[in-house]
Structure formats: structure tokens, C-alpha cells
Amino acid sequence: MHDFIVVYNDTFKYIDQIYGEEAVKDLWAAISERWCTHLSELIKTKGISGMLEYWGGGNGTLERENAGYKAELKNSVLKVEIANCPSVRELKERKREIYNSKLTYCDHCNALYPPIAKKYGYEMHIYIDYNEYGECEGRCMLVVR
């Protein structure tokens, strides 16, 4: 998994440098459509509870990756607060330059997940904390209605 994060990050940088930011957005759209099938199936079969399971369930993504997070489903609103994004943490620990151009590494989350939620009638917003250099701090909040 650790090498995947580094390769993912470097792929974004490479595509941006060679083909531009629109090509990076195209890649993210393709990943969302073709590879986020587990999330899509959970939303299709379990709705917003499936999203909670995906990110914050006992074996959810954030739990498996030891992210500092809080997840809550209340009044049909899912709120996930991530204090320590595993991908950003991994890149920083390995002293890798995190993709940061007009787009950033963390922008891929907004490109991947909201389109899947929208397909099933949910509105998802991901709010990312950036530092003064426009770099992702590894903190964000995901809200789904």
C-alpha cells in the first residue's frame, strides 16, 4: 500500500507535467468510474450507511489505514473528520514532494468520491485544509446528505 501512495502521487505529477491538469482530472474521473466499485456497491445496497461502513466502519478504509478520524451518521447526514490522512502522512514520512500544482494530491478525493455519491442521489462535499503554500495538511472533513 505504501508504494502505491508514492506511485499515485508521482503519477499525478508526471501527467500534469507532460499533459496538463485536464489530463489529471481525466485520470481521476476514470479512476472514480472504473475502480471505486466497492464504494459504489456499498452506496447502492446500503445508502448512506454504506458510506459510513466504507470510511469508518470497524474494517473501513480509515480504520485500516490508522487515520485519526471521527465518523458520525446523524439525522441522515454523514460527517467524517479526518485529522491525519494516511496518504499525506505516508508521503511526508517518506520525504516525498506531494503533488501540488494548480491541483493538489488531495483534490483527487473530490474528483473520486462525490460523483459516486451523486449517482445514488447523495450530495457529498469534501473540505480540505491547506497551509499557506496551498499544500494539503492531511486534515479534511467529508459531509454527505
Structure description:
This protein has 7 helices and 4 strands, in the order H-H-H-H-H-E-E-H-H-E-E. It is of the alpha+beta class and 145 residues long. It has one domain: 2-Layer Sandwich (Muramoyl-pentapeptide Carboxypeptidase, domain 2), CATH 3.30.1380. Helix 1 crosses helix 2 (21-35), helix 2 crosses helix 7 and helix 3 (37-46) packs across helix 4 (48-56). The protein is globular, with a radius of gyration of 15 Å. The mean pLDDT is 93.
For the biggest sheet, the summary is: 4 strands, antiparallel
What is the approximate shape?
globular
Number of helices: 7
Characterize the quaternary organization of these chains: single chain
- Name the helix and strand elements from N-terminus to C-terminus, one letter apiece: HHHHHEEHHEE
| Structural class by helix and strand composition | alpha+beta
CATH-defined architecture: 2-Layer Sandwich
Beta-strand content bin? 15-25%
- Strand arrangement within the widest β-sheet reads 1-2-4-3
Task: List how many beta strands DSSP finds.
Answer: 4
Low-confidence stretches: none
Helix residue percentage: 40-55%
CATH fold name: Muramoyl-pentapeptide Carboxypeptidase, domain 2
**Cα radius of gyration in angstroms:** 15 Å
Overall mean pLDDT stands at: 93
- How many structural domains can be distinguished in the coordinates? 1
The CATH class is Alpha Beta
What distance lies between the first and last C-alpha atoms, to the nearest angstrom? 30 Å
